[in-house]
Amino acid sequence: MIVKSLTSRGMRTRAALLRAGREAFDEHGYDTVRIDDVCARAGVSHGTFYTYFDSKESLFAEVAGAAMGEMFAASVVGPSAPADPYARIEAANRLYLRAWSANSRLMRTLEHAATADDRFGRLLMELREVFVRRGADGVRRLQEQGLADPTLDPRLTAVMLGGMVEHFAHVWLDLGEQADEETAVDHLTRLWARAIGLTPPSSTDARSSVLEEDA
Amino acid sequence: MIVKSLTSRGMRTRAALLRAGREAFDEHGYDTVRIDDVCARAGVSHGTFYTYFDSKESLFAEVAGAAMGEMFAASVVGPSAPADPYARIEAANRLYLRAWSANSRLMRTLEHAATADDRFGRLLMELREVFVRRGADGVRRLQEQGLADPTLDPRLTAVMLGGMVEHFAHVWLDLGEQADEETAVDHLTRLWARAIGLTPPSSTDARSSVLEEDA
Amino acid sequence: MIVKSLTSRGMRTRAALLRAGREAFDEHGYDTVRIDDVCARAGVSHGTFYTYFDSKESLFAEVAGAAMGEMFAASVVGPSAPADPYARIEAANRLYLRAWSANSRLMRTLEHAATADDRFGRLLMELREVFVRRGADGVRRLQEQGLADPTLDPRLTAVMLGGMVEHFAHVWLDLGEQADEETAVDHLTRLWARAIGLTPPSSTDARSSVLEEDA
Amino acid sequence: MIVKSLTSRGMRTRAALLRAGREAFDEHGYDTVRIDDVCARAGVSHGTFYTYFDSKESLFAEVAGAAMGEMFAASVVGPSAPADPYARIEAANRLYLRAWSANSRLMRTLEHAATADDRFGRLLMELREVFVRRGADGVRRLQEQGLADPTLDPRLTAVMLGGMVEHFAHVWLDLGEQADEETAVDHLTRLWARAIGLTPPSSTDARSSVLEEDA
DNA sequence: AATGAATGAGTTTTCATTCAT
DNA sequence: AATGAATGAAAACTCATTCAT
Q1: Domain match, B71 and B125 both
Q2: A10 beta carbon < 7 A from strand E?
Q3: Which residues form a coiled coil (chains A, B, C, D) (predicted)?
């Protein structure tokens, strides 16, 4: 589907469909959503849908792609991040939780769609890989600096601890596990840091710690 | 649907449908599976299906219920388990991975079905709660014995570390992350133990403490 | 679509759909016919249609195939045919007109469907080829016996004169050109015979020659 | 739809649509063609279509009407035609084949459209009638001059032999039957002439007779 | 005049479920 | 008990046509 020269009205409609689709997928998953639901939500007739998208699948691909982009962008610990390893881990965890808070349901839906459609499976694999690599690099760096247990496999460790954060995000945001963000971030960070053998913040008494992250 | 007095032939047919359903849900998720698929797999006509089940939903409820039972039973660290806390954690992790290896896909499917149907949502909640409580009890006991960081919230910690194991099981079994069981169990256990501040094995001879209790 | 073990009831339904389809295609061509029309005519729900056929296309393929078979079978000048060349031509023309009277509309429809779907195009080509070859063989044989103009190209002649008969059948049966069968057959035969230079009946006693061979 | 005073730009657009429609109908028949196809081909938006035509049907009516006009005009054996009957038949056949070579597909489409829409049926009837009458007149004249078998029914003969030419044009042009024009015209003419009992050329000097008259 | 966004009636197709045998 | 034929409610998708700009 080649969408040519959209007028501003067309762009508005397309955006409305995208937004409606995102909401619908968020609330009802993939299979359950009917094109008509999306159209009703966007306030257009179902005929109009096909002016902008080929199928439900292609709408979802776009919605999911955008969400993945957001996830990715939102979880980058920028260069202005603290130098202290512990603080960096904390910043990363906080960012990750926040990124998930906007996209958690959709990511689950994507994961489910992946079961039925390889295309989405591949999309998801790529995203995971980026995160895993990033985590593994972090672990490896700490090991090289003598700050983390050198006998741990960096990738495996990243998969496991990254999974801990991801899974918690899901449980917390989607399944309603009670916790306030501060406590959650604090626990995740302490568990993560200690798990790899990172000595808690300052060599003195590690009670609180923390610095902030970048946007 | 009240199925009364099944003849042995009837029981065989019912079992075949159950098995076929389990396989089908495992391979294709929930929405995608058609009753006809299940019947074909079980070698019965679709008419027969309704002799034993009310609907696809009720078949799935039964399949999922059975899987949850298995999961639950399989992950109990029995009385013959070691007394050493570290060894107990290790045993629990190993059991957990094994239990998941048989039910991982189905659990994902159940989780997905929960999105669409509250009934499954509640089922899943209960299962989670059992595991979380068990984990939290374990952490609390270690804290009481002075073997684990007393400032950690037991429930939150159990949610997070339990999630780590569960998520890894998924990544490992469903998404094809490479790792052999020994290494996986070893890493999970080390990360878990150190995360809560449990001094690695050898050091002390842990006399009593437990992480897992029998059901 | 593999139709397995049809019960007699199933066979009846299938036959009803086939008959209904045949009628509908006869009356309304291909594109205009809706599956529901066929079902209504057959007195079954549209769901039932798909128990027996994959699509409108596959129904038509079967209907058309059957019609072609009939056409073919019906137009064979059997061994009991007269030996006299002129009489043979006459017999062939009469048979051909009769075969067309049952299938004319459908053949037009098939020809039209061929425009849109290559599959039908190929089907039609084959049918034509059989008739053309038969006709050409007949002409050639008469030429060899010195009964027909030897300078005519047998195939081209068969295409043209065969076309004359076919086209007349269409005009007569579908477009309502008035003529009684006797006169029509008589004219077609005289035109055909004289066109190839065959001396009209009586004159010589043609012992053997043939225009048509048995299948 | 009354289109009043078209500007030259309007006329250009209209002509473009007509040309595009003609091409599209030629290639894809009637039902298959979408208004959008025509518009795309003409390089205008689909909205514009309705400035010039009421519907697909009315576009086709115009396209078909024009084609019929061409057919008719092109097949007139003008006053400069030879006086010799055989030569006149030959000229008529050649003209007919040529006229068909430009309109063959469209005529088939028209014939098919006639199945669905009476309006086109009537249009077609009229065209046929003109040709048939012309042919019948020609035959009658030859009979009156003692050059053709007087026992033949003029109309029926014209229908049959005219059909031979028409059908051959279709087979040759649309279905790919191989033949070069010279041979085709030669065969058609010989078959036609001999069929009605017209003594081949040379023999006598046919002074007057005509098969075709100017419109 | 031209554009292209919007509409919605019309069709095909799927599949859970019922029912006669 | 088992079968498989029949049903019909959904849902996706197409496309001629209208209309605001």
Answers
A1: yes
A2: yes
A3: none
C41 touches strand E (CB under 7 A): no
In a domain, A1, yes or no: no
E4 C1' to D45 CA distance, Å: 7
Measured between beta carbons, the chain B residues lying within 8 angstroms of A29 are 112, 115-116
B42 lies in which domain range?
8-54
The answer, yes or no, to whether residue D212 has pLDDT greater than 80, is no
Q: What tens digit of pLDDT does each residue of D118-175 get?
A: 888 888 888 889 899 999 999 999 999 999 999 999 999 999 999 999 999 999 999 9
Q: What is the pTM of this model?
A: 0.83
Interface contact D181, partner C, CB < 8 A: no
* Nearest CA distance, D172 vs chain C (angstrom): 9
D-chain residues near C187 (CB < 8 A): 152-153, 156-157, 160
Domain tally for chain B?
Answer: 2
Per residue in B48-104, pLDDT tens? 999 999 999 999 999 998 988 888 887 777 667 778 999 999 999 999 999 888 898
Nearest to D191 among C128, C157, C171 (CB): C157
Give the CATH number, domain containing residue A191: 1.10.357.10
**A12 and A90 belong to one structural domain:** no
Say if residue B31 is in the same domain as residue B69.
no
A80 with A113, same domain? yes
Q: How confident is the model at residue D69 (pLDDT cuts 50, 70, 90)?
A: confident
**What's the gap in Å between the CA of B198 and the closest CA on chain A?**
10
Domain with B14 in it: what CATH number?
1.10.10.60
Angle between helices D8-28 and D56-74 (to 10 degrees): 80
From the centroid of its chain, how far is CA A114?
16
Question: Where do we find the tokens 């042009």?
Answer: D173
pLDDT of residue D141: 95
Statement: residue C214 has pLDDT above 60: no
For residue C75, give both structure tokens: 């137009």
CB atoms A28 and B188 under 8 Å: no
Please name the member of B111, B166, B191 whose beta carbon is closest to the beta carbon of A161: B191
Residues A15 and A94 in one domain: no
For chain C, the straight-line distance linking the first and the last C-alpha, in angstroms and rounded, comes to 31
Query: What count of other Cβ atoms lies within 10 Å of the Cβ of residue B78?
Result: 10
Q: How confident is the model at residue D49 (pLDDT cuts 50, 70, 90)?
A: very high
> In Å, what is the separation between the CA of C9 and the C1' of E20?
11
Q: Give me chain A's average pLDDT, please.
A: 87
Structural domain contains residue B106: yes
Sign of the four-CA dihedral A135, A140, A142, A148: positive
- Answer whether C touches B (≥3 Cβ pairs < 8 Å): no
Q: What is the 3-state secondary structure (H, E, C) of C164-212?
A: HHHHHHHHHHCCCCCCCHHHHHHHHHHHHHHHCCCCCCCCCCCCCCCCC
For B1-43, how does the pLDDT look when each residue is reduced to its tens digit (9 = 90+)? 544 556 777 788 999 999 999 999 988 888 889 999 999 999 9
Residues in chain C within 8 Å Cβ distance of D187: 152-153, 156-157, 160
Question: Could you count the other beta carbons within 10 Å of the beta carbon of residue A144?
Answer: 10
For range A143-169, the mean pLDDT? 97
- In chain D, residues with a C-beta closer than 8 Å to the C-beta of C111 are 108
Give Cβ neighbours of residue A48 (< 8 Å, ≥ 6 apart).
A13, A17, A39
Question: Residue D35: phi, psi to the nearest 5?
Answer: -50, -40
Question: Is residue C205 included in any domain, yes or no?
Answer: no
CA C184 to chain D, closest CA, distance in angstroms equals 8
The DSSP string of B2-49 is: ---S--HHHHHHHHHHHHHHHHHHHHHTTTT--HHHHHHHHTS-HHHH
Domain membership flag for residue A178: yes
Nucleotide nearest to B45 (CA to C1'): F3
> Is C87 in the same domain as C173?
yes
Asked if pLDDT for residue C206 goes beyond 50, the answer is no
